[in-house]
Write a structure and sequence with these properties.
The protein is of the alpha+beta class. It is built from four helices and five strands.
C-alpha cells in the first residue's frame, strides 16, 4: 500500500494527512501526537475514527497541520483521518458516517461588520 492522502478542515484549521501501513505512529508537524496535543481529550478526538474501525495499530499517519486553535485542529485532523480511511476501504464509510466523522462542520467565525463593535453586537443606544 502506498501513501494515501486526505485533507480535513474545521474553522480556520487545515489538516493534510498521509496514511501508510505501519504500527500506529501519529506524527504531527514532525512531533508526536502526545507532544502536539498534551490533552487526553484532544488525543481521543484525533483517534476516534481509528478506534471506531479498530485500526489504531494498523497505520502510520503523518500530518501537516496549520491554522486555527487546538480544538479546531484536532477536529480537522479527525475529519482528514476519516476521509483517508474511506479512501483505503470504501466499505467503512457507513460506520464512520453513523458516528458523524465524515461531516465537515461548516461553522466558522462571522466577520465583523462596519459601525459595530463585533459581528452582531451593537453600541449602546442612547435616546438623549
Amino acid at each position: 500500500m502506498e501513501r494515501i492522502n486526505a485533507i480535513g478542515r474545521r474553522k480556520a484549521a487545515v489538516a493534510r494527512v498521509y496514511v501508510s501501513e505501519g504500527t500506529g505512529v501519529i506524527t504531527i508537524n514532525k512531533r508526536a501526537l502526545e507532544v502536539y496535543f498534551p490533552s487526553s481529550i484532544l488525543q481521543y478526538i484525533v483517534k476516534q475514527p481509528l478506534n471506531t474501525l479498530e485500526a489504531v495499530e494498523k497505520y502510520d499517519i503523518k500530518v501537516n497541520l496549520k491554522g486555527g486553535g487546538y480544538k479546531g485542529q484536532a477536529e480537522a485532523l479527525r475529519l482528514a483521518i476519516a476521509r483517508a480511511l474511506v479512501k483505503i476501504n470504501p466499505e467503512d464509510k457507513s460506520a464512520l458516517r453513523a458516528e458523524g466523522f465524515m461531516t465537515r462542520d461548516p461553522r466558522s467565525v462571522e466577520r465583523k461588520k462596519p459601525g459595530r463593535p463585533k459581528a452582531r453586537k451593537r453600541f449602546q443606544f442612547s435616546k438623549r
